[in-house]
Design a protein that fits this description.
single chain; mainly alpha
């Protein structure tokens, strides 16, 4: 008897036999329960009648974030990896169709995410027993999470079917999600602020955050918000389904490509050339071969700089509207759009840094290139220094542009406090945030570069190295900030300034100590990580460290 979707059938059978499938559900449910208890105990400022709504909202934001970015780490590289390894052509030599491969990869890479969501579903249901949450509201939010997960995975499959390299697949998926979930709502807010009327709501439909907001009963009861909720749900589902259809159409035509298409026109090339293109002399290639190897392909730094250049007009328009509109509330909205756009660029750049720092380490270990380099006169510290210096050269233009944007925001706060409706304490807090963001950006670059290199050397798959690097550097400060926001009220602005300063200091400490620890491990255990302890000892006898 013929099996329908044979790869899906196989992946489901394999997952059913894996211990990790069951362990994942246990640990995800345990972590969610612990978080629920912490939020319950720490939310002393919330009224008992509103506790259920508060817990559902706070944990719902985490679930929505996970579902929104799941495609970056689960499906963004699933098809491009097969194309790089040359196994995609073997699949098409069989009777399998493109949809068999697409749905098989979708099942294999999304199964754990779906099981994790099912594990936390009962814990979310505890909010129903606390009151303040209706059953219909809970089901609408659950629908938002499922559709958002489908939306993210579909985009990841579409980009993976078109891409060849890991970095392009991850960065492409991230940019598409950020554009639909962040840039489109930002454009809507700016247009609404300038026109003083709400229109062009279709820009909000592809944003999971908009569907999440309208799912709550306080908004859904309005006839307008109820219609907007279903418009957003249908749009998100349509984008995910469109991504799967696009992958199904383009995969049979793209798997034979041997390289990536060159980036677009000269408009995006000249600033990259001025900011990041290294001037390599012939003697530099022999004195620093690893550095030359690292910087010869500057596409990661160019991708980050291109995103900044694309969003720079949006930030400038938002800042001009924040001081040029007559309505002070509209000015504040425009400034908030600029604020979140800049820090969204910070996040995108950090993801690209983690992806590039771990990429070469992971790919060269899997291909055996590091084994060949270790028998050359190159020392480990020269290899690592070349990789690190090359990474800094690739991203120096993007880092400079982000620092410049933060300085522009500081200048706007100091020059136009009256137009932005800021008191003296407000100016101090925002200047602290923007200047602290510059320092944190440099510290995170240090941490992400070393942790990404170390994790790339250890990970079996590249996306895991990126995920672990971000979890070690970005997640702890973000988790602490999340708990502070949802458990402590900040009525005193002086206390808020102290908390922000302490949060930045904690972020710096985590980045420097984690990065320093990863750097020491790379210098001490590079050979054993590449070759295994016994082979490393044999190689040391042959070549030594020099």
């Amino acid at each position: 008897m013929t099996t329908v979707l044979p790869i899906v059938d196989r992946e489901l059978r394999v997952a059913a036999r894996k211990r990790s499938t069951y362990r994942l559900r246990f640990w995800v449910a345990l972590a969610t329960l612990l978080l629920w208890i912490i939020l319950l105990k720490g939310s002393n400022n919330v009224l008992p009648t509103a506790m259920g709504q508060h817990l559902l909202n706070s944990m719902g934001i985490l679930a929505l974030t996970f579902c929104m970015f799941a495609g970056i780490f689960l499906t963004a590289d699933c098809l491009s990896e097969e194309k790089r390894e040359g196994t995609m052509g073997l699949l098409f030599l069989t009777d399998l169709k493109s949809y068999d491969v697409i749905f098989g990869k979708l099942a294999a890479n999304s199964l754990h995410a779906f099981f994790g969501f099912l594990a936390v579903f009962p814990i979310f249901g505890l909010t129903l027993m606390m009151g303040g949450v209706t059953g219909a509201e809970f089901m609408r939010l659950s629908l938002v999470f499922v559709v958002t997960l489908f939306f993210s995975l579909g985009i990841g499959l579409a980009v993976s079917a078109a891409a060849q390299e890991t970095r392009n697949a991850i960065s492409g998926t991230l940019l598409v999600i950020v554009f639909l979930a962040g840039i489109c709502p930002a454009v809507w807010w700016l247009y609404t602020s300038a026109a003083s009327r709400a229109s062009a709501n279709f820009l909000l439909w592809p944003s999971p955050g908009y569907a999440y907001r309208n799912a709550f009963a306080a908004y859904y009861r309005s006839p307008f918000s109820g219609r907007e909720f279903w418009h957003s749900i249908i749009t998100l589902f349509g984008v995910g389904l469109g991504g799967i259809i696009f992958a199904n159409v383009i995969l049979p035509r793209s798997w034979q490509q041997t390289g990536e298409r060159k980036a677009a026109g000269k408009f995006f090339r000249w600033p990259y050339f001025l900011a990041t293109k290294p001037v390599m002399k012939l003697r530099d290639m022999f004195c620093e071969p690893m550095y030359w190897l690292a910087v010869r392909d500057g596409s990661p730094g160019m991708s980050a700089l291109r995103v900044i250049l694309i969003l720079f007009p949006l930030v400038m328009v938002a800042l001009m509207l924040s001081v040029g509109l007559s309505n002070q509330n509209a000015c504040k909205v425009a400034f908030i759009v600029a604020f979140f756009s800049v820090y969204g660029l910070h996040f995108v750049t950090k993801v690209l840094i983690a992806a590039e720092a771990s990429r070469r380490m992971n790919e060269d270990r899997r291909s055996g290139a590091w084994e060949l380099l270790l028998v050359t006169p190159l020392r480990v510290k020269e290899i690592l220094r070349g990789q690190r210096d090359g990474l800094r050269r690739q991203f120096r233009g993007a880092l400079f542009a982000l620092c410049l944007l933060n300085i522009i925001l500081v200048a706007m706060v100091l020059i136009f406090p009256r137009e932005l409706g800021m008191a003296t304490r407000d100016k101090q807090i925002f200047c602290e945030i923007f200047l602290g963001g510059i320092v944190a950006l440099q510290a995170d670059f240090f941490g992400l570069s070393w942790v990404g290199m170390w994790r790339g050397l250890l990970a079996k798959q590249h996306y895991r190295a990126v995920l672990v690097a971000l979890a070690q550097i970005i997640l702890p400060p973000a988790a602490i900030l999340f708990l502070l926001i949802f458990t402590e009220p900040f009525h005193n602005e002086a206390v808020l300034a102290e908390i922000i300063a302490g949060w930045f200091m904690l972020s710096l400490v985590i980045s420097f100590f984690t990065g320093h620890n990863a750097r020491n491990k790379l210098h001490q255990k590079f050979r054993s990580a590449v070759l295994g302890s016994q082979r490393a000892e044999t190689l040391d006898l042959i070549g030594g460290e020099g």
